[in-house]
Structures are given as C-alpha cells and as structure tokens.
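Reagents: none. Just compute today. 2-deoxy-D-gluconate 3-dehydrogenase.
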Amino acid sequence: MSDLDRVFEQAKTVTDRFRLSGRSALVVGGTKGLGQAMALGLAAAGADVCVSGRGPAGLTETAEAINRLGRKGTSFAADVTEEKKVEELMSFMEETYGGIDILVNSQGIVHLQSSTEFDTAAWQRVMDVNLKSIMLTCKYAGRYMLEKKRGKIINISSVRGFQGRAEDLAYAPSKGAVNQITRSLAIEWGPKGVNVNGIAPVFTLTAINKKILSNPEMKNWVLGRIPMKRLGELEDIMGPVIFLASDASDFVNGHILPVDGGWLGA
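Predicted 3D structure written out:
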C-alpha cells in the first residue's frame, strides 16, 4: 500500500475518531456552567456520563438531560476536597459504568481581595477546591485508567493560569498549579496510555463571572482585551473537550489549550 493509499484509508474514518461511543465519563463540577455544558457535549458525542458536585442543585437535572440525549446519565453528590468522598465516587463509577474512561475536572471557585488583607481561610478554600480536589480525582481515576492502559483526563484551568492579576493571591496561583499538575501527570502517565491535558477558558457567560461582567466598565475592558470582541459562550467549550476526550487527540499530551478568543495572544 502506498503512502497515499494509507492516508486515504485513514481519512475515510477520521470523523469516527471523535466519537465517544462505549466510553464512560465523569465530569466533576458538572452541575452548572462550563461543567454542565461539557457533560452534555460528551453525551452528545456518545459517552455515558456521571456528573458530580457538592449537590443537590443541578445534579438530577443534568443527569436527566444526559438521558434525554440517549446516554446513561447519573449523578453523585460528593465534596471532592475530601479523599474518602473521592474514593466513594470512583467506586460508584466502577459499579455503575465498569470504570472510568474520561475524567473532566471542572470544579472551581474565586476569591479576590486586597493582598494585604487577603483572608487566609478563603485562600485555603480556593486551593482545596481548585487544586487539592484535582490532585485527588486524578490520583484515584488514574488507578483505573492505568490498569486498563487507557484514559483521558481534562483539567479545566484558566487564562489566569498563565497570567497574574491584582488582588488574586489564590485563583490565579491555583490555576497555574493545575497546569503543572497536568504536565507532570502527562509525563508520568503518557507512556502508560493515559493522556492528561487541560483547557484554559477566558471569561465565559457563567454564574461565576456574572458579578464581574455585570459591571459595564469591566465588561467593556474584557471585550476590548479579547481580539474576537465577544465573551466566551458555553458551546465554545464543547468541541475542545470532545476532541481531548476522543481518539482524535491520542498524540496530544501535557497541553493546556486556551479557549480564549485570542486573549493570550494579544
């Protein structure tokens, strides 16, 4: 077979590589905003999806929406900053889906305050939710994936993982650390069949950004900073997460993909 013939045969099935049929996914923080959008996007691409959050708000509704897409949707309430709860969550995935093929970490909180007055308890809470929980879910999901020698992990970072910001001693540093956890795991687990990547969104129309974007001056500044001159929409995150969860990204590892309308390039 010639090189052209080989590529021709591969091209005929290239779109199939984006399908997630037969895969089980866990979306942590999947009850609202970006996490909910990614959970539904993964289901639309063929995956069975469990959504997890501290609950109960959004858990049942999101799982039911996944079922309406024709996939097996379930939910599990858990505070993933607690190691015991993470172990229970992974046991649920094993019992319900036979394991876990895709892990999406979308949990996150923000606290902004003058640095000289920054509340230490708030700092610790941000670190626990944004960083410790990702370490724990990767640790336990990784055990299942490494045993199967296959898996996709997508950690949701932020453009702030690359940039500092005034009055931000917690969120931006936590996202920078998420980037480094992602890269470190990619180096360790990539040779064993597990891809670990990240997505770094810019300001998106979600509840976490409503307070900031409700200020006309701040909203205009954000829009002026984004070359595409619009805010991120929930649908903008679906394609990237499907790509990173699918076979189409098998040779993508340790990458943090900005979904930012050109913010970081400006």
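The beta strands are 24-28, 48-53, 73-77, 102-105, 151-156, 194-201, 256-259.
Action item: order primers for follow-up constructs.
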